[in-house]
Amino acid sequence: MDKLIVTVVAFGLIAFISWWFFGKHAVKEVAANQAADQQSVDVEVSGGYSPSTVVLKQGIPAQINFNRKDASSCLEQVVFEDFGINDFLPKNEKHSVTIDTSKPGEYDYACGMNMFHGKVIVK
Amino acid sequence: MSIKNRFVFSLIVSLPMLIEMFLKPFGFMLPGHEWTMFLLATAVMLVSDGPFIQSAWAAFKHHHANMDTLVAIGTATAYFYSIYAMLTHQAVFFESAAFVVTFILLGQVFEDRMRHSASGAVEKLMDLQAKDATVLRDGRLVSIPLSDVAVGDIIQVKPGQKIAVDGVITEGQSTIDESMVTGESMPVTKATGDAVIGSTMNSTGTFMFKASKVGDDTLLAQIVEMVKKAQTSHAPIQRTVDKIADIFVPAVLIIAIATFFVWDVLIGASLVSSMLFAVSVVIIACPCALGIATPTALMVGTGRSAKLGILIKNGEVLEAANTIKTVVFDKTGTITAGHPQVTDIVGDATQVLRVAAALEASSEHPLATAILNRAKTTVVTPAKITNFAAIQGKGVQATVDGHAAFIGNDKLLTDYTLSAAEQATMEHLQQEAKTVVIVGFAGKVIGLIAIQDAPKASSAGAIAALKREGLRTVMLTGDNARVAAAIAAQVGIDDVIADVLPGDKADHVKALQESGPVAFVGDGINDAPALTTADVGIAMGSGTDIAIESGGIVLVKNDLQDVVRALELSKHTFKRIKFNLFWAFIYNTLGIPVAAGVFFGLDLSLSPELAGLGMALSSLSVVASSLLLNRTKLTSAPAVTA
């Protein structure tokens, strides 16, 4: 009987893990708050970036305000490869990153170890 | 709480458990045994392990799993099982949970420290900047902060001071140590009209200079910007690694569950040992060594090359530099100095130069500059002249020291004759594609001067070194075939493509690419398309901005030996990346079956504590191996200067 329970639980867990991590889950896109000559968006850093995809308008100076809540050393750095940005995010503090919005496109960013990913869409 | 404090805390709290583990065989027990263990482990779990669990949970909500997930699940399993075991009076494993946390934090503390030392190159570069400058304002010298210096300011630099920004000397002269920017260890002498680089060290004299570039435009600021971009970039090989890392953690969790299932249900081992196997799998598999294998090597490699005056723009260039089969050089300004120089003087050198310089002093011919420069460097004072006159299409003549003197090309030979020996020398020099001028004094020819855009001193050695590496060398030039062949023979280049129109350079590079990846070395505006087309574009730092922008590698020193060094450093760095990845992969792929108990029959297995220690060691070894790049010997490196 014990063995049966273990078997069922084990396979159940495997199925759940496969679905949770490998399955397709919709990613929410969030647009930046627009002002006349400035746009900004807040991104919370906790086990990833939320929202992980932000949309910026082309040609308007933009800032992404990161706020790291997570103690993981993985997430303490944010790297925008395309812009040459490699910033340290102080814990529980707002840290702004200025994004060059002159060219439209999709720009990926990641944590220092490239384990967590986010995306900036300029259009 | 910082990683270090978390480590210290868990180390102190784990110590009593460690002592008990060693002294247990001798009958020693902690007072209150299981309950004490429970309290100590709980403290570790809350204080040191808490952030791992928080981070794992936050990642889980994002459908992500990372190394914190593995640590959290591994330790939590051991801890909660032990509580259950304690209540049902079975063997407990509180120490396992505590030790794993301690070891992993130990690894992170070291990793943190080493990562910072790897990324220190950029900060060290920025520290080179002067803090303030002595500027001429309203006729008085005032000291102002660096940020207030504007283009056009006249700045005074005293011996031992740092030069604040880029500019041109307006007054005075000095020797300047530019090693921090160019990597060149010999100080250079500079006088009025020479360019100085911000952040370099003035050594002997006092001089004034006019600021031409400030703030983000200075060479140093641009170097810093480039190095930063290179260090945050990823080599293409990293993308494969990322894909693997993304599915790695969930896959490990599945393997751990399967391990437990196989041992418990199929083999029928005890619940305790089945669980220990599963926990070991989770702990050993932390893929952080994999994650840092590429970035740390890239950081150290690009940082070191920047110190040598070689700026590698990104990881892609670095990876491409490894596959290069052919190196194509632009001629003018790349292999050669880019301006005509006196290469040979036939006859009494001092006398010939003295007369020639006197005659050319009033001439504006480009060849005249070459002769005057030579007179200046060999410290020959030109004679005084009168009755200066140009002979159309032939040369110039004047009265020097009371005698008629002339300088000109071989068309003058209708008026004067050369000896047979001089005639032979002249023809020989002309065959080397040199321009020969004849110098006459008091009615007879006293010597010949040969002028050529000569190869840089380092070119022949660099090309020989590339050929030793098995690379094919090609020279592309717009010059005619005779000049091109002469230069090619002097430096020992394999193939020459002459008479190339400026717009066709890129097409020639493309054609050469058919036989393998090509590196192109150039400096001019017309080289920009070829620099972009080539698999690796190497721009001379003295070149035009557009060439520097198009190149993937920039050589600050304009020395062709740096082409060799750049390729060699790229190779070493890339080799190190592959080496790191190999070990990180091997570690995980071999570690998992061992931890899962596959080799249990051979008495080979891992306890969760050992797995935690191994996992810390693997990250450390990867970072240490990257840092070793700083010590890798370069065959082409100059004598190392501290």
UniProtKB/TrEMBL annotation, chain A:
Domain EfeO-type cupredoxin-like, chain residue ranges per copy: 14-122
Highest taxon above the source species: Bacteria
Any Pfam family matching the protein: Cupredoxin_1
Alphabetized InterPro entries for the sequence: Cupredoxin (IPR008972), EfeO_Cupredoxin (IPR028096)
Protein's UniProt name: EfeO-type cupredoxin-like domain-containing protein
Species of provenance: Levilactobacillus senmaizukei DSM 21775 = NBRC 103853
Lineage per the UniProt record: Bacteria, Bacillati, Bacillota, Bacilli, Lactobacillales
From TrEMBL, chain B:
Recorded GO MF terms: ATP binding; ATP hydrolysis activity; copper ion binding; P-type divalent copper transporter activity; P-type monovalent copper transporter activity
Domain P-type ATPase A span(s) in chain numbering: 128-228
Reactions performed catalytically: Cu(+)(in) + ATP + H2O = Cu(+)(out) + ADP + phosphate + H(+)
Keywords assigned by UniProt, alphabetized: ATP-binding, Cell membrane, Copper, Copper transport, Ion transport, Membrane, Metal-binding, Nucleotide-binding, Translocase, Transmembrane, Transmembrane helix, Transport
Subcellular location: Cell membrane
UniProt topology in membrane: Multi-pass membrane protein
GO biological process terms on file: copper ion homeostasis
E.C. no: 7.2.2.8
EC class: translocase
Entry annotated with the keyword Translocase: yes
Primary localization: membrane
Gene Ontology CC annotations of this record: plasma membrane
InterPro entries attached to this UniProt entry: ATPase_P-typ_cyto_dom_N (IPR023299), ATPase_P-typ_P_site (IPR018303), ATPase_P-typ_TM_dom_sf (IPR023298), ATPase_P-typ_transduc_dom_A_sf (IPR008250), ATPase_P-type_domA (IPR059000), HAD-like_sf (IPR036412), HAD_sf (IPR023214), P-typ_ATPase_IB (IPR027256)
Membrane-spanning intervals of the chain: 7-23, 35-57, 69-87, 93-110, 247-269, 275-300, 581-604, 610-629
Family affiliation: Belongs to the cation transport ATPase (P-type) (TC 3.A.3) family. Type IB subfamily.
Protein name: P-type Cu(+) transporter
